[in-house]
Specification:
236 residues; alpha+beta; Translation Initiation Factor IF3; Alpha-Beta Plaits; 2 domains; 5-stranded antiparallel beta sheet; 5 helices
Length: 236
């Protein structure tokens, strides 16, 4: 008897705040998240060229690094039509270079480094560009990053698909719970874009070595944009 009384009191206590909340316009809700990814063909590529030399003086090292970057620019602009708008110096440094000899830190010279960022709009030319640049001794080429200049339509499609994904989840939950999904109360958007790396310089050169006299092979895959949303629906 005592247990029955305590149970009844507990139900009453729980019902009071719920009734009060409903009286204050409380709306039961269902919260879900949705995501989607849309693939697209890239139309631009970017990579970096780094020249680094250690010489007796800073001026000598800097002059040699600048000359090597100049040679690379001549290849890009002369043979492949790369414009100055697609070239950007991203890093310049000069510092003493030391080496440990018999547990002693010994100055071996002055080191100068320059890095040039390159954008390419003709993806078919990437293999040829790497072929010619790798003939220059003293430079380092980075991996190639693919991108698309105008991603607005892909973002729009991804966001729409993310909303549809969220609604499908809400409908499934509602059906299982025996309720109905009502109006949208809020939407929180969180979209991201990732441009993955496709083919490093070493892989492309390995392809070139497989056939004597052939240019470096460059294979460009799709890139993608993704969208995610958090949506709160009213429960009817």
């Amino acid at each position: 008897m005592r247990k029955a009384i305590l149970s009844a009191m507990a139900v009453l206590i729980l019902a009071i705040p719920l009734s009060a909340a409903e009286g204050d316009g409380y709306t039961p809700t269902i919260s879900v998240s949705g995501s989607a990814e849309v693939s697209m063909k890239p139309d631009t590529a970017s990579f970096s060229i780094t020249a680094s030399f250690t010489r007796d003086t800073t001026s000598e090292a800097s002059a040699e690094a600048s000359a090597m970057i100049g040679d690379a620019i001549a290849v890009l602009t002369g043979s492949f039509g790369i414009t100055e708008e697609d070239l950007e110096t991203s890093f310049i440094s000069a510092s003493p270079e030391y080496r440990w000899v018999d547990d002693e830190r010994v100055l071996v010279g002055q080191k100068a480094t320059q890095t040039l960022e390159v954008s390419v709009h003709d993806l078919d030319s990437i293999g040829g560009i790497y072929d010619q640049l790798m003939s220059l001794s003293g430079i380092t080429l980075s991996d190639v990053t693919l991108d698309k200049e105008d991603k607005s339509e892909a973002y729009r499609e991804a966001r729409m698909k993310a909303v549809l994904d969220a609604r499908a989840k809400a409908d499934a939950f509602a059906e299982a719970a025996g309720i109905s999904v009502g109006n949208v109360l809020s939407i929180s958007d969180g979209s991201s874009y990732t441009a993955p790396l496709y083919r490093s310089a070493n892989l492309m050169l390995a392809s070139a070595d497989s056939a004597e006299g052939s240019s470096a092979a460059f294979y460009s895959g799709d890139i993608s944009v993704s969208a995610s949303v958090d949506i709160i629906y009213a429960i009817e």
